[in-house]
Amino acid sequence: MKWTMLLLAGIFEITWAYTMKLSDGFTKLIPSVITVIGYLLSAVFLALALKKLSLGTAYAMWTGMGIVGTTVLGVVMFKENISIPQVLCIGMIIVGIVGLKIMGE
Question: Do 58 and 42 touch, CB atoms closer than 8 A?
């Protein structure tokens, strides 16, 4: 259950960051509302995961999921450029997330 809570926290982390971009500086109502809701849900699910996971592990995985997810969305949805060194660094973050899960609590 702790990993499910952390996964949901990561999904909502990506959601609020993505919809913040869509909100155009909070000038568009629907994306702005979704941003706030996503932010709150991300924090709630992270707090639930922290009941059973160590802070360092949970926070590293949560932010890592956010980094990877928002980078992918930026490239796919907003046609943002990504260089080979950036891809390699994102790959290292993924390896770190998987390593924390495999060696995690």
Answer: no
Residue 93 gets the label, from left (phi > 0), alpha (psi -120 to 50) or beta, of: alpha
Contacts for 46 with CB less than 8 Å, ≥ 6 apart: 5, 6, 9, 58, 59, 62
What number is the average pLDDT over the span 16-37? 98
Q: Are residues 52 and 2 in contact, defined by beta-carbon separation less than 8 angstroms?
A: yes
Residue spans of the domains in the chain: they are 2-103
Residue type, 96: G
Contacts of 82 (CB under 8 A, 6+ apart): 71, 74, 75, 90
Cα–Cα distance, 48 to 53 (Å, whole number)? 9
Residue 39 CA to residue 16 CA, distance in Å, equals 6
- pTM to 2 decimals? 0.90
